Known about the structure:
Blueprint: E1 6-10, E2 26-28, E3 30-35, E4 53-56, H1 63-71, E5 79-82, H2 87-97, E6 102-106, H3 107-117, E7 123-127, E8 132-138, H4 145-162, H5 164-171
Parallel strand pairs: 4-5, 4-6
Antiparallel strand pairs: 1-8, 2-8, 3-6, 3-7
Amino acid sequence: MGMFDALVGAVPQGVARYVIPATPLAKVQPVIAVRAASDFSYQGVESFEGILVSAQHGYNFTDEIDEYLVRHANDLRRVDIVFQSNAGALGLQKLIAGRIDALLGHKAVLNYLASRQGVSEQIRLIEVGAPVEVYVAFSPAARHSQRYAALFDIGMSHLMRSGRLEALRRKYGLEREP
């Protein structure tokens, strides 16, 4: 609709109609955060039986988990969908307080937020699925989106060749490109 020029951290299946550069921004690992003392283990969405799972609205995880969230979106005993922009930070607070049992997110983001909140030792992250490439997705309604996507690819190429991209990814705990 053109309300925004770009979305940072988009996965292609979530923004298929957008203008997406050829170069991914990074790879992120989907995770489930639980309290450190929890004996929860993930063996498919059946593992969510009897627990309250929280996630930020519009985020993608694995196909199986995404489908579970859609199927149970109206069941407040199973799924807590958060629409706020600070959903990760809020989710960690709710997890530590025992108001939810599991928080869906991405490893680098939840590690960062947990460190900022001083709760890293109080949570455990369980990796689910494979790392996912995330992109900057440009609006299909903005007239310069194709140009911006091309400029983004050029900039990423310069960052890769200089070694600065790898340094940035390390700094933020992001997965390395294959």
